[in-house]
Amino acid sequence: MTHHKSNQAVEGEAGSRRAHDRGMPRRPDTEELARRTMRDRAEAGLPAGGSEDPDAVYRAVHDEVDVQAADGSLATGTARRNRGFPPTRY
Known about the structure:
By secondary structure, the chain is an all-alpha fold.
């Protein structure tokens, strides 16, 4: 005696074939994806245009970090010693 029904018994002859064939289409609609992306970006408050050049973004952020480190508003690699505790090498 079996406890579970087979897929064919539950879904019928044609149902079992269709249920397992679903997934990403071979050729997604790129125009629809672009429209959805633009809508999602607008809802998130991001600029609607395409993304900026990653190298330009990196250079801009790197330059901003350099400016902040130079004027002292950003902590640099100098670690503060915690004199109340023994060194961590113990």
